[in-house]
Design goal:
Shape: globular
Radius of gyration: 19 Å
CATH architecture of the largest domain: 3-Layer(aba) Sandwich
Bound molecules: S-adenosylmethionine
Order of helices and strands: HHHHEHEHEEHEHEEEEHEE
Number of domains: 2
Distance between the termini: 54 Å
Number of strands: 11
């Protein structure tokens, strides 16, 4: 018992394990994630509808989106942005490894008679010879990735971008890092049965890595017949650190905002949104 508890409470090295697929593709968890995406009561998986509408209106004006604008939406989920962008006339490609979300997005496109190219794939493995005018990765999706994975993604963005194209994405800021505390909690059916339809005990250990500005929510889910560890990493950024990462991949940040709806940048914002171009 001591050894089990010791393992649960052990702090791994930053980004030592990547388990995003459990969070987004597990049969039980992905069903609840889709419900969160579609719910206007929670910001857990997607932001609320009013924000998404505002964000798409801002992007449409800022990037002059219209007929023939080629957009790649990485981590598109159920297509809440992709659908709206396609309704503006854009040619949209959405990439996501959640089959449940991609199925939902495809059905929504069919119902609205929108021609959206939805690709069910791990975006770290996405390859294409096509070029895009706009690449989006919305809701801090760069933050769970390790430095090496982020380098892969940013290199990909650079290669996929038209010479005049833009990248727009958001990341967690250092305010997110500073507001979080280390904790260790547990509960039966932790998060009201979110992790499994079976009975389980769930442990949540939150670790902070001061030097790297990384947060880890580590979940250990113990069922009668299996134990799973889910690592939810969040890399937090300053404007300088995100700028440096982009520059290291041949991209240049040209604008900072507080969110992907074009809200002017504020030092107290928990997120930083950026617009980048090829360097
Ligand atoms: C926080 S949600 C945001 C969804 C969407 N951008 C939005 O704001 O409504 C993150 C999305 O990224 C997807 N995702 C996470 N890691 C991925 C990976 N390695 N490859 C493909 N999709 C991934 C998840 O399935 C999920 O749909």
């Amino acid at each position: 018992m001591y050894d089990v508890l010791q393992k649960i409470n052990t702090r791994p090295r930053p980004f030592e394990f990547y388990t995003a697929e459990i969070l987004w593709t597990d049969e039980h968890i992905s069903r609840q994630m889709l419900a969160f995406h579609l719910s206007d009561d929670t910001d857990l998986a997607s932001r609320k509808k009013a924000f998404i509408d505002k964000s798409v209106e801002w992007m449409t004006t800022r990037f002059d989106i219209g007929k023939n604008t080629r957009i790649a939406d990485f981590g598109c989920g159920p297509g809440l942005y992709s659908t709206r962008l396609a309704e503006k006339g854009a040619e949209v490609t959405g990439i996501d490894f959640s089959e449940r979300s991609i199925d939902y997005a495809r059905k929504a496109a069919e119902e609205k008679q929108l021609n959206i190219d939805y690709i069910h794939q791990d975006y770290l493995e996405f390859k294409s010879d096509r070029k895009f005018d706009l690449i989006t990765m919305i809701y801090c999706d760069l933050c769970p990735l390790s430095p090496w994975q982020r380098k892969v993604m940013l290199g990909k963005f650079r290669d996929l971008l038209d010479d005049e194209g833009f990248v727009v994405l958001d990341v967690c800021s250092l305010n997110t890092f500073n507001q979080k505390n280390e904790t260790a909690t547990y509960g039966r059916k932790l998060l009201d049965g979110f992790w499994s339809s079976e009975d389980y005990y769930g442990f949540l250990n939150t670790f902070k890595y001061e030097e790297e500005k990384v947060i880890l929510d580590k979940y250990t889910i113990i069922e009668k017949s299996r134990t799973r560890e889910i690592y939810n990493w969040i890399q937090c950024f300053s404007r300088e650190s995100i700028r440096k990462e982009f520059e290291g991949s041949g991209l240049q940040i040209i604008e900072f905002y507080s969110d992907v709806a074009g809200t002017p940048y504020r030092d107290d914002s928990t997120e930083i949104a950026i617009v980048a171009k090829k360097a």
